[in-house]
Amino acid sequence: MLFDSHIHCDYSQDSSMTLVEALQTAAKEQVGIIVTEHWDYDYPTNPYAFLFDLDDYFRKFSAYRSEQVLLGIEIGMQKHIVQKDEALIKAHPFDCVIASMHCVKGRDLYEPRSYKGLTKAEAVKAFLEESVATVRLYSDFDVFGHIDYISRYMPYEDQELYYEEFPELWDELFKALLEKSKVLEINTRRLDSPKALAAMEILYGRYRELGGLHVSLGSDAHYKEHVGRRFAAAKQIADKLGLLPVYFKERKMIISKG
Question: For the chain, what is the domain count?
Answer without folding.
Answer: 1
